Amino acid sequence: MYPTNRPVSPDQGPEAPMVVNCVAYRDNGTRLKDIDLDAISDVLKEPDTFVWLGLHEPDESLLLKLQEEFDLHDLAIEDAQQAHQRTKVETYGNSLFIVVQTAQLISGHIAFGETHIFLGKRYLITIRHGASLSYTPARRTCEMSPELLANGPSYALYGVLDFIVDNLLPIVRDIRQELQELEQDIFSDTFNRDTVRRLYDMQRDLMTLRLAVAPMQDVISQLARLHPDLIPKELRAYFRDVYDHVFRVNESIGAMREMLNAAINVNLSLVTLGQNEVMKKLAGWAAMLAAPTLITSWYGMNFTHMPELDKPWAYPTIIGVVACVVCGIYFLLKRAKWL
């Protein structure tokens, strides 16, 4: 459907590991080492460290293990087990549970997923469900700025959210390009059922994308204004920047939805006008056929005194009259642009 076809992340296959990354960092933003799950509690005992853990569709036993290691709330773990949560921010003690929707282009179509995020003072946990690119590039970007990563897991949270939002921009751009390409089909002289189907598919994808993006504005707005114990004021500007990107994506989606509605209405109007033109032509030809039909039908009646019985010029005269009437109707309809 859409021109861009981005590859699926390699950790999204059927054999993808549930634990994608588990890394310990110093409080100065430098990477300490990769650790396994059993070592998390030992790392957290050290005062100057934090952990960034990335998961992909974990099972119940793994989530219970995380609950034990990070002391996560029961309700948050229960929500994380189910992959159909609304976009939201929940506060559980000294931690946040965040749900955001994600989108990805797979084989030319938009696939949707979601990411569950646990944010604490000394940890960040991302859990991906469904269609979503790996957050390894976001981790790499954050590690390139250790002075900002020194702010702790909150900067890692910014990196993940910024990566999610930036991944929406090319999707919106591809839909806009597809819509521009459809304009030629919309204004073509012939009706194409595939054009209407493509317009409907685009409208459906945009509606689903709007439902995923619009609530994200409120989530990021909360993170930019609230929770000072988890998000320092030095990072407020970064979250406001992500909010601006989300706002721009949401506005673009709204504009394209209006354009799609207009395109569908224009297409239907053009189809109706085309049908009217066909009906006008049919009515014009029917009028030309009606005149000779009316005249000649009189001669099917059983009258005694009829012109052709005793006048040799009657038939040529009638033929000439019929031809003149038909030609007169033809020129009148041609002038009225019915033919």
Architecture overview:
The structure is a single chain. The chain is of the alpha+beta class. It has two domains: about 10-270, Beta Polymerase, domain 2 (2-Layer Sandwich); about 280-335. Helix content is about 55%, strand content about 15%. It has helices spanning about 40-45, 60-70, 75-80, 135-145, 145-150, 155-185, 195-225, 235-300, 305-310, 315-335; strands at about 20-25, 30-35, 50-55, 90, 95-105, 110-120, 125-130. A seven-stranded mixed sheet has the order 2-1-3-7-6-5-4. Strand 6 and strand 7 (about 125-130) form a beta hairpin. Helix 2 (about 60-70) runs antiparallel to helix 3, helix 4 crosses helix 6 and helix 7 runs antiparallel to helix 8. It is rod-shaped.
Please describe the topology of this protein:
Blueprint: E1 19-26, E2 31-34, H1 40-45, E3 49-56, H2 60-70, H3 74-81, E4 88-92, E5 95-106, E6 109-120, E7 123-130, H4 136-143, H5 146-149, H6 153-186, H7 193-225, H8 236-298, H9 307-310, H10 314-335
Parallel strand pairs: 3-7
Antiparallel strand pairs: 1-2, 1-3, 4-5, 5-6, 6-7
Helix pairs in contact: 2-3, 4-6, 6-8, 7-8, 8-10
